[in-house]
Specification:
The protein is α/β, with parallel strands linked by helices and about 350 residues long. The protein contains twelve helices and 14 strands. The strands form three sheets. A seven-stranded mixed β-sheet has the order 3-2-1-4-9-6-12, with helices on both faces. The protein has a five-stranded mixed β-sheet with strand order 5-13-7-8-14. Strands 10-11 form a two-stranded antiparallel sheet.
């Protein structure tokens, strides 16, 4: 089966027999350059996902071309025809609302035993370790796949979008955080720029819906209980290049949704305030990006001593033929986001 622009899901597989290896599917909403989405889909399928469901937030025909003739990968463009057909014409205003919709859409239709919702910048490091954990998991609980976050290491070549190592979250005191990260400490929560709660792979067959991070009960049902995998198997690339992260900050800092403001945490809000107040000084934004995402030798030593650093690099599976260089990725960003880059004067 080739990748297809369709919402049809496979319906011919029988339930997994007792004692067999559990099957799992992944659902992701993507609005990123095609090489990243293709790398995510190809890697996830190669490491053991039976189904990889990619929902494109806007048309991107290069995605199917770069994925090629691989079965088990399903591509759906979330255009107005999709929303007319699947949600009475209503496109959720917020990106998180659309994420929840497509994740629950897959959850209610797949024949796999488990469904993981994650973003296309989050990669499972070890598919066999995940399958082993699922084989022992309680199917009445969600299973949190804990995350680590990519950081750039000193004196290493950063020629691909996956270059770097990974840091783990920890609960620093304010004094320790400032001693380690200096003036950039206020932009980090538990030592990370992004989330620390991981993403939950959820057993199918329950009256649940999927949230961004965890499943939720429908209506007045009991709250789903959660277990956690000890290993940090989810690798989060919070910005695939410094330019990518700077663009994310610019977009998020000035977004204006109706309804209540989404809670994002003090550190992320500090990043957004800084970005808004320095929008006319792009080099200051880039300096902040470097300060929160690149480690000094002293920071490397400290995190290593604390057991909070994985220096080993990662590169996705089954990605031969994809141009995953930083230069190519940034060129695609400049083409896609030229208006916001011109407005901010961001040159890299």
């Amino acid at each position: 089966m080739t990748p297809s622009d369709t919402t049809d899901l496979p319906d011919t597989r029988e339930a997994t027999p007792p004692g067999a290896t559990p099957t799992w599917a992944v659902a992701s909403l993507g609005d990123e350059p095609a090489p990243l989405i293709a790398a995510f889909a190809r890697h996830t399928r190669a490491i053991g996902a039976r189904e990889v469901h990619i929902f494109l937030d806007r048309p991107n025909p290069d995605v199917a071309r770069l994925i090629g003739d691989r079965d088990g990968i399903f591509i759906t463009t979330c255009d107005q025809a999709f929303w007319d057909r699947e949600n009475r014409g209503r496109r959720p205003e917020r990106h998180t609302g659309r994420q929840k919709f497509v994740a629950t859409y897959v959850y209610r239709r797949t024949t796999c035993d488990w469904v993981l919702h994650c973003d296309v910048d989050e990669f499972i490091a070890d598919g066999q370790a995940l399958s082993n954990a699922l084989a022992k998991a309680d199917r009445n609980k969600g299973l949190v796949v804990r995350n680590a976050e990519r950081v750039y290491l000193p004196d290493t070549v950063q020629d691909t979008i996956f270059a770097g190592g990974f840091r783990h979250p920890t609960s620093f005191t304010p004094e320790d955080a400032e001693a380690l990260y200096g003036r950039f400490a206020k932009f980090l929560a538990f030592g990370l720029t992004g989330h620390r709660v991981g993403k939950t792979i959820t057993p199918t067959g329950h009256n649940w819906e999927l949230g961004v991070h965890h499943p939720k009960a429908v209506e007045d049902g009991p709250k789903p209980q959660l277990d956690r995998i000890h290993q940090r198997l989810l690798l989060h690339f919070d910005g695939l290049t410094p330019l990518h992260y700077a663009i994310k900050l610019l977009k998020k800092s000035f977004e204006n949704y109706s309804g209540p403001k989404r809670k994002i945490g003090e550190a992320r809000e500090a990043q957004h305030r800084f970005t808004r107040s320095h929008a006319d000084r792009p080099q200051e934004i880039l300096r902040m990006v470097n300060g929160v995402q690149s480690l000094t030798p002293q920071q490397v030593d400290a995190l290593w001593t604390l057991g909070l650093l994985q220096p080993e690099p990662f590169f996705p599976k089954d990605c031969d033929g994809l141009d995953l260089s930083r230069a190519h990725f940034d060129s695609l960003l400049r083409d896609r986001d030229h208006d916001i880059l011109a407005k901010a004067g961001l040159e890299m």
